């Protein structure tokens, strides 16, 4: 049986002039445990040396409910200060628009404040990709668009994206933007398959957006499946993992990457060896039969 196409070695973010690796590394837990700058730098090197160029953080990463807002950005900023040459090796992405305890604020004034604050913490003069973290229902998309376009015009942001937006919310914001969106970041995993049938990925392909998948391992449930559905998905992934000599996690990343939308999984591990291992997902190939077997297991019922 013929194999599905291999993922590209790099992907252009629309017409932004930015190319990214087919897999990304995320820093949700980057600042946990009192990690030192040197320890943090080891993780950054692990990702870049493995060919993972897209590094994704957010201003709220590090926030524990009472404190820590901005800690992940600040730690990465310390790494970049200690080794300035690393900046040119990465596509730096961050997110904003969540303002504890409101919790969402995309008023023009706050967006300008949040973007500037991220740049200060990261100790850079611009980020390559800035994403609205979650939609603020009380903000008119035209107001949001004006604030984001102003930041692009000021040279603070190269390209724009959204995270956790519905299809309609994405299209509304994109319609008001002069600098069109290049990426969308929904939750996608072999256990979170809504986007395959609810139009999110179809819309992304129509708009030319790169889908960045957060929590691609189902919040760790694929590693230790608990219920019958999770075990069935794990077994379907294991069929390919065992045949190609990789871990179930790597098979899961590659399963997402086989989709024609060009899904970019965001690896969440904060262990260097796991980050390096994840990069091997680019070499895993799927047949249609094996790919659909995972989908059927996730659906919990046969295809129509």
From TrEMBL:
Q: Where is the NADP-dependent oxidoreductase domain?
A: 22-290
Q: Name one GO cellular component term.
A: cytosol
- One of its Pfam families is Aldo_ket_red
Q: Which domain of life is it from?
A: Bacteria
N-terminal signal peptide: none
Coiled-coil annotation reads: none
Q: Which GO terms describe its molecular function?
A: oxidoreductase activity
Matching PANTHER family: NADH-SPECIFIC METHYLGLYOXAL REDUCTASE-RELATED, OXIDOREDUCTASE YDHF
Per its record, how is this protein called by name?
Aldo/keto reductase
What taxonomic lineage is listed for the species of origin?
Bacteria, Pseudomonadati, Pseudomonadota, Alphaproteobacteria, Sphingomonadales
């Amino acid at each position: 049986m013929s194999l599905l196409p291999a993922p590209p070695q790099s992907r252009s973010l629309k017409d932004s002039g930015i190319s990214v690796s087919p897999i990304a590394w995320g820093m949700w837990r980057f600042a946990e445990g009192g990690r030192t700058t040197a320890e943090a730098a080891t993780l950054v090197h692990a990702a870049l040396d493995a060919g993972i160029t897209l590094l994704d953080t957010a201003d709220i990463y590090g926030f524990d409910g009472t404190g820590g807002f901005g800690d992940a950005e600040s730690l990465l900023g310390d790494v970049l200060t200690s080794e300035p040459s690393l900046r040119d090796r990465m596509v730096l992405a961050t997110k904003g628009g969540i303002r504890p305890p409101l919790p969402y604020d995309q008023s023009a004034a706050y967006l300008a404040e949040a973007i500037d604050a991220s740049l200060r913490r990261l100790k850079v003069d611009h980020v390559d990709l800035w994403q609205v973290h979650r939609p603020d229902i009380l903000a008119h998309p035209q107001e949001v668009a004006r604030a984001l376009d102003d930041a692009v015009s000021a040279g603070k942001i190269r390209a724009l994206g959204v995270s956790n937006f519905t299809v309609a919310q994405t299209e509304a914001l994109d319609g008001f933007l002069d600098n069109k969106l290049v990426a969308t970041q929904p939750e996608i995993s072999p256990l979170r398959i809504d986007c395959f049938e609810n139009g999110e990925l179809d819309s992304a392909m129509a708009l030319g957006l790169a889908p960045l998948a957060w929590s691609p391992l189902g919040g760790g449930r694929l590693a230790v499946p608990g219920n019958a559905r999770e075990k069935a998905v794990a077994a379907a992934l294991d069929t390919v993992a065992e045949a190609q000599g990789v871990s179930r996690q790597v098979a899961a990343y590659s399963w997402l990457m086989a989709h024609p939308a060009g899904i970019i999984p965001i690896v969440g591990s904060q262990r260097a060896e796991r980050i390096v291992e994840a990069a091997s997902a680019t070499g895993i190939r799927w047949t249609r039969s094996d790919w659909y077997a995972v989908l059927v297991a996730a659906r919990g019922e046969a295809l129509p």
